[in-house]
């Protein structure tokens, strides 16, 4: 049980408390308590404990179970321990800790540093975002977009006034940016640069113009007023 708790906390650090909530709900809480675990207060408590790095065994156990905190593992009713192990939680937690197999949800903001609008931006065929040219960019948020972690293929189509050269042309980023998870990383900033490279930057708060983007726009005389 102690190892399970440690793996649960480690996974929460890796993939964030919101994806962890779904994992716990499916793998642990329903078999144990016979009811889903969708309480925002429980999720907030888990996030608070993880951020504080204050993880002792009773807290680990409390994260795993929709029951009052126990003093030690022997206080856990035997029937619940059997049902927890029977749910195959060891296997699910081990798989979830492999970042390449996870598909967290992000609230996505697109930043377009090109000198023209873009549309139909896709990450491995998903997202479908669009944006005006900088500085009229980064103003909209796409909520709850599921994107798997790892190296990504990013494409977009060029837009502009009628008759503008290359309108509608599909561009593939010159690099293959890697999407990684950070603790509490709810947001994802997609940054498209004039050289057709892309940065994928997860963040805890709402994404902002990247340092590179701000510098390049200032050098080009296109910085914010």
Account of the 3D structure:
- The chain is of the alpha+beta class.
- The chain folds into two domains: 2-101, no CATH class; 105-219, Immunoglobulin-like (Sandwich), CATH 2.60.40.
- The protein contains seven helices and ten strands.
- The strands form three sheets. The chain has a four-stranded mixed sheet with strand order 4-1-9-10, with no helix packed on it. Strands 3-2-6-7 form a four-stranded antiparallel sheet, with no helix packed on it.
- Strand 2 (118-123) and strand 3 (126-131) form a beta hairpin.
- Helix 1 (2-15) runs antiparallel to helix 2, helix 1 (2-15) crosses helix 4 and helix 2 (17-33) packs across helix 5.
- The chain is globular, with a radius of gyration of 22 Å.
- Tally of individual domains: 2
Largest sheet: 4 strands, mixed
CATH class of the largest domain reads: Mainly Beta
**In the CATH classification, which architecture of the largest domain applies?**
Sandwich
Q: Low-confidence segments, ≥5 residues, pLDDT <50?
A: 29-40, 65-94, 96-101
What is the CA–CA distance across the termini? 57 Å
Radius of gyration: 22 Å
Helix content bin = 25-40%
Name the overall outline: globular
Mean pLDDT: 74
CATH topology of the largest domain: Immunoglobulin-like
Task: Record the strand order, biggest sheet.
Answer: 4-1-9-10
